[in-house]
Amino acid sequence: MTIRPIRELGDPVLRTPADEVRAFDKDLAALVRDLEQTVDHPGRAGLAAPQIGVGARVFSYNVDGVIGHLVNPRVVELSEETQDGDEGCLSIPGIWAPTVRAMHAVVEGFDVHGEPLRLSGSGLMARCLQHEVDHLDGKVFLDRLAGEARKTALRALRAH
């Protein structure tokens, strides 16, 4: 079992857009296994490859007792209805802030074997899908904040 250390804000890998996966091989299988084992921990809903120092477009999720992954994900649908709940990030420990996300999301990509895969969900799953795709684009949830929520989160970050 391999639980990988989490990279924290300030590490350049978190601000660098991840590269598309081109080879569905044993290296990818090992990465997916590490992501799924690392996310399999109470309080962890998702984990993107950059968060463990790998610049590849892959993430794992752990929502409602279901653990899985997606390779080369792309968001294909976001609902107009939104949710505005507290969001946190393993790479920004201790900081939670109200973050507006679509209530429902659909993301398409591939599984570890290169077979097409479509994930959809509402609530926490939708939040997770959007959050992890953001990581693969070099963004963190703080980038989504505005106004007082952003000011409060950045103050808390400086105090950490």
Report on the structure:
The structure is a single chain. The protein is of the alpha+beta class and 160 residues long. The protein has a five-stranded antiparallel β-sheet with strand order 1-2-3-6-7. A two-stranded antiparallel ribbon has the order 4-5. The relative contact order is 0.19.
List its traits.
160 residues, alpha+beta, five-stranded antiparallel β-sheet, 25% helix
List the helices and strands and how they pair.
Elements: H1 26-39, E1 46-48, E2 58-63, E3 66-78, E4 82-89, E5 92-102, E6 104-110, E7 116-122, H2 124-136, H3 147-159
Antiparallel strand pairs: 1-2, 2-3, 3-6, 4-5, 6-7
Question: In which range does the helix fraction lie?
Answer: 25-40%
Identify the overall geometry: globular
Largest sheet: 5 strands, antiparallel
Q: Reading side by side through the largest sheet, how are the strands ordered?
A: 1-2-3-6-7
First-last Cα distance: 31 Å
SS-derived structural category: alpha+beta
Give average pLDDT, whole number: 96
Low-confidence stretches: none
Order of helices and strands: HEEEEEEEHH
Strand content: 25-35%
**Rg, Å, rounded:** 15 Å
Number of strands: 7
Number of helices: 3
Summary of the model, kept short:
The chain has 160 residues and is α+β, with helices and mostly antiparallel strands.
